[in-house]
Amino acid sequence: MINSTSTPKNKKKILVVDDSALMRRVMCDIINSDERFQVVEQAFDGLAAYELLKKNQYDGVVLDVNMPKMNGIQFLRALQKDKIRARIMMASTDTKDGAKVTMEALDLGAIDFIEKPVNIVYLKSSGFKDKFLDTLQAVVTSRQTNISAFPILTREKQDENTQKLVNIVRKSKPVVSGQKIVALACSTGGPKALQSVVPRLPAELAAPVLIVQHMPQGFTQSLAERLDSMSRIKVKEAAEGDVLENGVVYISMGGKHMNVATRGGRATITYTDEPPREGVKPCANYMYESLKTSSYAQIVCVVLTGMGADGTKGIVNLETSKKIHVIAQDEASSTVYGMPKAIAATGLVNQVVSLDNVAQEIIMNVGVR
Questions:
Q1: pLDDT, tens digit (0-9, with 9 covering 90-100), for 147-202
Q2: Which residues are known catalytic residues?
Q3: DSSP structure string for 222-250
Q4: In whole angstroms, how large is the CA radius of gyration of the chain?
Q5: In the structure, what pLDDT confidence band is assigned to residue 118 with cuts at 50, 70 and 90?
Q6: Confidence band, pLDDT 50/70/90 cuts, at residue 141
């Protein structure tokens, strides 16, 4: 099934792909209610959408996963194979299997996703509508598409480069003595960006790594498992009471705010349940601010791709009581240049680097064991 309409000038042209007539109607109503967008075509399955994309261009594609003939993952693979560029937003379920499929979709070039609610009442709520439209705006204005403009290193080459850095750092003297910690924030485009950072960190990293990636509950565990399978450094979804250890990456659980507290003289993960801040939960500002009273001598703050400004206020507050070193992703390699731009505007950034160089700068700044 394919439906098409003409679109006025300046409105972003959207293709909606979903086998559910109800979901298509709801999503089309939401999209068409916003003056920035218009649904110009609809497709019942991935195969019909694939045929449309072979001959037409759209500013954004809203894509379901489970569909007949060609599902969302098969569709994304077909686009990769044929080098067909598109900016894609997934409509995903929050089941365990749904979260894993979402991670795969992001690996295959989807820019972001919206959690598709089971409850029809919430589906038609202003909360879902606002989140949907914000995510769609980030996707259609993204600098990136599903086809990466950057070369992908093999695991062997990645490990070889990391080992060279480890050897160099072991011979140098640390600039700052005492304990260090890495605190990283990211949002739209973050899951894919993290694959260019975390797997390049060595297991011998002389610091723990905290990550706040804006994601709903249920998705962050799949993200942690995916990154752990790709990395020598240990990666886990942070649990309440985890004592921070060097050479471990802790990803904040979705739906809660991750903080660091000192318990029994040890830095420990604790979660709080305040309302969303900066419109997100988890919010990186809480993570950064909680480190003000920690025992760490230096905090290496890393801000990667994402819409909005989460992390900026937290880092500004942290700088009043701690020695910080701030690394921001550059505009050219950012999927959405929002969060890195916001922290750069404060004047606190020490380094602006491409995504491929973020891991290197983390290693150089915190050292190895």
A1: 987 666 777 888 888 888 888 888 776 565 679 999 999 999 999 999 999 999 99
A2: 187, 214, 310
A3: HHHHHHHHH-SSEEEE--TTPBP-TTEEE
A4: 21
A5: confident
A6: very high
Q: How far apart are CA 225 and CA 231, in angstroms?
A: 10
* Residues 334, 336, 338: CA angle, nearest 5 degrees: 105
d(CA 360, CA 190): 18
Residue 260 CA to residue 39 CA, distance in Å, equals: 44
pLDDT at residue 6 tops 60: no
| Residue 231 neighbours by CB under 8 Å, 6+ apart | 198, 199, 201, 249
State residue 211 phi and psi, 5-degree precision.
-130, 125
294-352 pLDDT tens trace: 999 999 999 999 999 999 999 999 999 999 999 999 999 999 999 999 999 999 999 99
Question: Do 283 and 257 form a contact (C-beta atoms < 8 A)?
Answer: yes
User: What is the structure's pLDDT at 120?
Assistant: 74
Query: How many Å apart are CA 30 and CA 33, to the nearest integer?
Result: 5
Mean pLDDT of the chain: 92
What are the structure tokens assigned to 85, written together?
A: 């560029």
Q: What is the pTM of this model?
A: 0.91
SS3 annotation, 104-162: HHHHCCCCEEEECCCCHHHHCCHHHHHHHHHHHHHHHCCCCCCCCCCCCCCHHHHHHHH
257 half-sphere exposure, CB direction, 13 A CA radius: 22
φ/ψ (deg, to 5) at 234: -75, 135
> Do residues 145 and 85 make contact, with C-beta atoms less than 8 angstroms apart?
yes
Structure tokens at 345: 């505007």
Is residue 284 within 8 A of residue 314, CB to CB? The reply is yes
Q: How far apart are CA 350 and CA 329, in angstroms?
A: 11
**CA 214, CA 177: separation in Å to the nearest integer?**
32
